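$ ./design --mode recover --in tokens.txt
reading tokens...
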């Protein structure tokens, strides 16, 4: 399964190769759960291979899983190496310069591959792809196809098998039936025991530093029925935990003619039989209503974990970031949430070195984080993104100073993480096991803490819920031993 960390919709510096738990090429596809339950069998293996390289947020991961699924369904097999792939798909991120640099580096190395194996098809998707593809084409002439993540049908231009399938739309309602909103992703992609399900695309906030709205467009929610159908299918395929995704996930339904609220969707998904855990990310503090926290506290599958980016702890900086809330609002929302869910864990995002951020303003962020005691903080050094409002302002905090502020907050969070996790020693927490890591089983608690599980004998815990007694703690993860029968 893919190695990943569950984090808010944000750029991650690491790259990953998405692996999808799906029928092996050549396996008896017609007997897979998905085919049996949901539609026509995938095409037989065609001897071709694909490789996917992904960087960025969970939305990219979800998109990559969808591409992988499409290719597997038409007979391609996934390979971990680009060197023996017939198609290499790069799913890009430009939210920070460092991510964009990594994509450019990867594209550079693929130019060499293309010279030695010109028949390899190279495809670029993700946020680097804009409407103006002329420039990209000039810069990366070895790329065969650029496609916008909302336009998966274009993959057919380099995957003849997909194009052929498209000719026969009627025969393939399973993959290509257009949803009412034209956005329903290909069905049947699976990731093992956990899965991401995008529920809203784009973003209507225009935070002054952020490129996302320019690349992903306005908020567009998927219909409730389509989401419920997809989760039902995932559950039928063995998924036990689903994370609903959106850049502003709690704006779900606001764009419908008859406005809806996320709580309605959460209730509907929670009611799906067989689903054990439900999460959603990333929330905007403006839309965190009392009702949303009340529903979170009440619905059994909904995990006690909240992704609530704050970005800064100083009101002047927040105002210049165009975040549309104050530090007190964010803190008050946490306070209410914790009054309803005492076990709630919170993750947040912070940008240090925003243009004009004074030492005093930075110390406000420090004090706020010290007070908030989040379980996890995703720290980023400000990086100007062309086209955004703040890119017009002087990037006046030197890199070394951004780095220092980053380190100061990292150290603070290390202390807080240690204190939080050490208090868990001896307690029992439920873990959904997602894989094996250096001889130990690993998974996440409902609060989204990474937990490694020691088992005496070689028991297969993959995909199981296990109660774990915590025996050891670090600032970043816990270690424990099974304290009951897996289920
Ligand atoms: N929708 C989410 C986050 C989207 S972008 C939210 O509202 O917070 C993911 C993360 O990348 C952000 O939380 C922010 O911390 C970081 N980020 C975005 N633009 C950035 C920039 N120009 N420089 C540095 N970090 C940035
Ligand atoms: Fe970017 Fe702000 Fe939208 Fe988050 S809410 S995606 S930070 S513009």
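writing sequence...
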């Amino acid at each position: 399964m893919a190695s990943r960390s569950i984090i808010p919709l944000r750029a991650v510096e690491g790259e990953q190769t998405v692996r999808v738990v799906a029928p092996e090429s050549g396996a008896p596809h017609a007997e897979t759960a998905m085919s049996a339950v949901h539609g026509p069998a995938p095409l037989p293996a065609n001897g071709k291979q694909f490789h996917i390289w992904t960087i960025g947020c969970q939305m990219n991961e979800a998109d990559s899983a969808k591409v992988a699924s499409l290719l597997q369904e038409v007979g391609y097999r996934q390979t971990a190496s680009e060197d023996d792939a017939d198609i290499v798909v790069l799913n890009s991120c430009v939210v920070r310069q460092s991510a964009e640099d990594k994509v450019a580096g990867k594209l550079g190395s693929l130019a060499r591959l293309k010279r030695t194996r010109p028949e390899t098809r190279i495809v670029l998707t993700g946020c680097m792809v804009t409407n103006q593809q002329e420039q990209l084409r000039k810069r990366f002439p070895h790329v065969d196809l650029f496609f916008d993540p909302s336009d998966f049908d274009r993959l057919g231009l380099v995957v003849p098998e997909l194009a052929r399938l498209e000719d026969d739309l009627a025969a393939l309602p399973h993959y290509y039936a257009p949803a009412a909103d034209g956005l329903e992703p290909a069905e049947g992609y699976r990731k093992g025991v956990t899965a991401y399900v995008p529920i809203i695309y784009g973003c209507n906030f225009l935070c002054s530093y952020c490129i996302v709205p320019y690349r992903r467009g306005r908020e567009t929610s998927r219909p409730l029925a389509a989401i419920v159908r997809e989760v039902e299918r995932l559950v039928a395929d063995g998924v036990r935990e689903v994370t609903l995704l959106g850049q502003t996930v709690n704006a779900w339904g606001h764009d419908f003619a008859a406005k809806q609220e996320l709580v309605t969707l959460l209730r509907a998904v929670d009611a799906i039989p067989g689903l054990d855990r439900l999460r959603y990310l990333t929330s905007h503090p403006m839309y965190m209503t009392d009702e949303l926290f009340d529903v979170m506290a009440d619905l059994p599958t909904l995990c006690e974990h909240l992704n609530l980016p704050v970005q800064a702890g100083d009101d002047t900086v927040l105002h210049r970031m165009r975040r549309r809330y104050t530090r007190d609002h964010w803190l008050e929302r946490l306070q209410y949430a914790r009054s309803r869910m005492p076990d709630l864990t919170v993750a947040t995002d912070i940008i240090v070195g925003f243009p004009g951020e004074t030492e005093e303003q930075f110390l406000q962020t420090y004090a706020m984080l010290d007070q908030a005691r989040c379980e996890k903080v995703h720290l980023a050094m400000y990086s100007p993104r062309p086209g955004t409002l703040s890119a017009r302002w002087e990037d006046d905090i030197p890199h070394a100073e951004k780095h220092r502020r980053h380190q100061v907050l990292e150290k603070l969070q290390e202390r807080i993480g240690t204190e939080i996790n050490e208090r868990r020693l001896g307690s029992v927490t439920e873990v959904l096991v997602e894989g094996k890591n250096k001889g130990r089983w690993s998974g996440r608690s409902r609060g989204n803490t990474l937990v490694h599980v020691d088992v005496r004998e070689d028991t297969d815990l993959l995909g199981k819920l296990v109660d774990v007694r915590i025996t050891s703690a670090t600032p970043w993860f816990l270690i424990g031993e099974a304290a009951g029968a897996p289920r």
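exit 0
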